[in-house]
What we know:
This protein is of the alpha/beta class. It has 2 domains: 10-132, 3-Layer(aba) Sandwich (Rossmann fold), CATH 3.40.50; 135-210, Arc Repressor Mutant, subunit A, CATH 1.10.10.10. 43% of the residues lie in helices and 16% in strands. It has helices at 25-37, 48-52, 75-83, 99-107, 120-132, 157-167, 172-179, 183-197, 202-210, and strands at 17-21, 41-45, 62-66, 68-69, 72-73, 90-94, 112-115, 135-137, 147-149. Strands 2-1-3-6-7 form a 5-stranded parallel beta sheet, with helices on both faces. The protein has a two-stranded antiparallel sheet with strand order 4-5. Strand 6 (90-94), helix 4 and strand 7 form a beta-alpha-beta unit. It is elongated and about 60 Å long.
Amino acid sequence: MVNDEYTYHTYHNRDRLVQIIDNDATTCEGLSILFRLEGCQTSFALDADSFFSSPNRRRPDVFVLNTYDRGKPSTESLKRIKNMRTGAPVFMLADSEEVLDAVTAMKLGATDVLTKPIDNELLVRAVRDALTRDVLLGTVQGGKRPIEIRGFNQLTPREREVLELISNGQSNKETGRELGISPRTVEVHRARVMDKLGARNTADLMRIVLTS
């Protein structure tokens, strides 16, 4: 769980994109408004093919996908999303309480399945929780613990490198030496990472990472 000392602000979501895929335009529009109020950017498609065929689509941080697409189960769409390997959580919307559909979706990697009519507060809370737990620690490899950043598209490649190294216990000087930059530059990158992840100090940043 996220550390209780972490303070959530909607501006943390300013670069997060929620992709909504549902055949019902009213649902898409309503959810778009809901997540924009949370500070997120949104995009929606009335069917999965429209999303996958879009040539200039941006990688979403969160998917909200109906369990059925044009009358057919969205299992293939869910598989395709997972094969994108973005690590983005997928929340499925079910038009009815079909237990089998929910079980299938969860087995295929859905984060959660919610039944319509949608409990907006529950959905927002679930998505918010997923976003604040987007920094994950991998298994130790070669003496280091790689970090997988899911959904934090606002972090630059260099900021991710700095986060990984300082999370492995390296000092600014050691991090700078490994990356070929000065300790002062490391401090600048670290400050930007802390701002984007909502950490008040380095200890808070480590708590966010280690308790995610």
